[in-house]
């Protein structure tokens, strides 16, 4: 059985760090905590779990801090988490099983990263991350902000999920944006990946016009990970929507088709535009396509399952109702309800369609059909 070092970097995480550590403390064999300047009770809390607590002077470089934490590990594999991450009970069991069965020739294990869920437990935003890596490979973190772990070799995809449970307590709100602005002011030339992530930070801080500029710079490089390219198209559409330019938002969605086969998200975005224009049959085409598209099991990019599940079915219910196809409309609304059984809009639709279908049945009986 392999041994595991948990390596984390933290700062002012007293509200969440106990929750994180308590869910993995009896699974991992070593806990390494690197503190980048806490002024609250974070260090006191983590010291109840481990003596391996190190101070690291913050130098506006997440990779430097993470690589320092990795350098302190001594076990076979390194698991990394952020302070507001947890492993739910079922994923704790899966991690234990993985630890007992993992082949020592494995270099990296990816895990799902669930970033948000709705009130019905449906994951609404997720991706995969290289989460458990062989220490002897000396894999390194790259990039001062929005860092990534550069791995190679024998990589396997697990069904373990890490769940992000933020309390919206960010002790350094805007820190990433400030790092980018500082680098920009120093005249630094950003590589494509940083152009993309700077644009994301600008968008998150509602600087939409500047964000558009950086997304365009990123796309015009002709470089970058395909998933970042597609996300840039999606977020360009969001920016233009916020600025009230719906045609440009639509064109940003269409632009994604230059780079890859249709994805469910863009099918829904395109379908919505045609729905707005009362072109229901074309909207139906795109929404139906969204329900048919599947991602591979080893997909690593950002993913919102809503775009291939309840959302297109709800919109298909709207479209079919508009063209008088109430039986089909009802079927799609019922499908949407399987994902969100208490959704008030869908339940109102259900009552409406039941009335419509009863009217159709009564009309048929009167006509002897």
UniProtKB/TrEMBL annotation:
Q: Name one GO molecular function term.
A: transferase activity
Q: Which UniProt keywords apply?
A: Transferase
The record's annotation in InterPro entries points to:
Glyco_trans_2-like (IPR001173), Nucleotide-diphossugar_trans (IPR029044), TPR-like_helical_dom_sf (IPR011990)
Domain Glycosyltransferase 2-like, first and last residues per copy: 5-96
**This protein's name:** Glycosyl transferase
